Amino acid sequence: MVKLPSGKSIPIVLRRRFSTVPPADYAGNRINLIPIPHRSIPEARGQDLDFVNVAHSHIIHSDWGKLELSPPAHFTPFRITHVLLKIQRDHVLSLEFFNWVKTHSPDSLTVETHSIILHILTKNRKFKSAESILKDGLGIRSSAHSADKLFDVLLHSYRVCDSSPRVFDSLFSVYARSKKFRFATDLFLRMKDYGFFPTVESCNAYLSALLGSNRPDIALGFYGEMRRCRITPNVYTLNMVMAAFCKGGKIEKAVELFSDLENGRLLAPNIASYNVLIAGYCRKGLLSSAMKLRTSMGKNGMEPNVVTFNTLINGFAKEGKLQEASRVFSEMKLSNVVPNIVTFNTLINGFSQLGNSEMNDMLYQEMVRAGIKPDILTYNAMISGLCREGKTKKAAYLVKELDKERLVPNSSTFSALITGQCARDNPDRAFQLYRSMVRSGCHPNQQTFDTLIAGFCKIKDFDGAGKVLLEMFDRCLTPTLDIVMDIYNGLQQCGMDRLAMKLWNEMEARKCRDKIERVT
Asked: Which residues cross the membrane (predicted)?
């Protein structure tokens, strides 16, 4: 792992970092660019030339049946390359031939043949087709060595096809969208060496993928590299930079960037710009600032959308301020913004945390009247709330409703039910639910086991707690030393010395004692 300035770590595969030096005039460094190499392709002669000419004739006359008469062994990479070069002016025919070869003689396609079709397609601005070929496997499931080779082959065949820089952009875009961060980073830096730069759209795809993988520091580093390379950002770029600042805990930087947008020093902000900063405020618990920004939207000709309201409702709900969340919900409806399932689930989950099942019933009915179909998250939140209130029978009724709605209980469903039974001092029933959970293919987590053990210990059933502990060991989960000692001491106090020793021996046999001590 590599330490970042924020104190976080990143995998070693991303060690090749973007520079942290402030952006400079990149154009002044163009004299240091590496010249694009040129590697000519040998001319086709003899039987190779005969094959290319005959194949060309069949292709332009759409005589694919005659082409099929040739044995697969005749379709060598060299011949396919020359056929593609011969028909490259017609990108539709070129792609048709490439796909034909992929079906009839796939072993004939190499990195070199792929590079030719990629040049042809990108030169003719058929970027989706080019990216589809790349996504189909070339370079995506490859090793770093193969990725380097692909870049080298594209580079050396660049002048042969009189290609476009967009061929490298397409490759970068696919790596970015596929979250192949190491390949994308290395490709960007190699492209830069030769004066090739990705489009802002591809850069945005990379920023989005980094943020989606919770790597805001790397996203900010990449944005700095974009500026150094004079890649002009658009408002979507800057929105993601704001999101990176917010995720990285640098809310003041996000506010500064937003102010530049709002004051017209950069680009004009859009609705997403406001939503990003509102989300940043909510994440930090600065709800008054979030509401103030929401109010300012109208003054700037922006109307809040469903994302704006959902973000605010979620912010208040997480703070347990359900009255304020409900007020925002009412404002949302008055503004003729239609609530969606996220809106209702957020509110239902919030009221469940407070144990207000009556309010949840009202929200559920409103949701159904609005034609919004509840999902498993809706039911889980309601079940959890009922269990918190000790209304386990009503919770069990909702579980039966899942089957009618063709929804499948998941780990959260079972965990809520287990919590409810333990709260009612019924750990035996909770343990039965745990068994059902496992049979259903759901995976209990540490919290599930902790709840069960606490439930058994509460009623002094240390035998039951010991059974749960052994289940934990079977699932390679390590309890804390406090939990183990509570059970061990409880067994001894109840005169179950033999069972206590058995538990201790089981821990010894499973080599759990060292793990427990390390965890503690």
From this structure: none
Amino acid at the residue 8:
K
pLDDT per residue over 252-278, tens digit each?
999 999 999 988 777 889 999 999 999
Alpha-carbon distance of 392 to 315, in angstroms, equals 29
- Statement: the pTM of the whole predicted model exceeds 0.85: no
Closest CA to 120 of 145, 97, 152: 97
Chain segment 396-440, per-residue pLDDT in tens: 999 999 989 999 999 999 999 999 999 999 999 999 999 999 999
Tokens 């009724």 found at: 397
CA 343, CA 329: separation in Å to the nearest integer?
8
CB neighbours (10 Å) of residue 491?
22
User: Rounded CA gap, 458 and 456, in Å?
Assistant: 5
Delineate the domains of the chain, giving CATH numbers in brackets: 35-164 (no CATH), 339-444 (1.25.40.10), 446-520 (no CATH)
Number of neighbours of residue 317 by Cβ within 10 angstroms: 23
Report the candidate in 394, 406, 407, 314 with the shortest Cα–Cα distance to residue 416. 394
Q: Residue 5 — φ and ψ, nearest 5°?
A: -55, -30
Which residue shows structure tokens 């029933």? 429
| 174 in Cβ contact with 130 (< 8 Å) | no
Is residue 42 within 8 A of residue 52, CB to CB? The reply is no
pLDDT category at 143 given cuts 50, 70, 90 is low
pLDDT above 70 for 187? yes
Residue pair 414/442 in contact (Cβ under 8 Å)? The answer is yes
In whole angstroms, give the CA distance from residue 443 to residue 15.
Answer: 35
Query: Of 410, 452, 411, 401, which is closest to residue 429 (Cα–Cα)?
Result: 452
DSSP string, 276-335: HHHHHHHHTT-HHHHHHHHHHHHHTT----HHHHHHHHHHHHHTT-HHHHHHHHHHHHHT
Chain mean pLDDT for the chain: 88
Q: What are the angstrom distances between the C-alpha of 414 and each of 307, 379, 444?
A: 30, 12, 9
Cross-strand pairs, 3: 9
Residues 6+ apart with CB under 8 A from 55: 67, 70, 79, 83
Is 444:438 a contact under the CB 8 Å cutoff? yes
Strands (DSSP E) contained in 158-201 are none
Which residue has tokens 């704001």? 242
Helix (H, G, I), strand (E, B) or coil at 62: coil
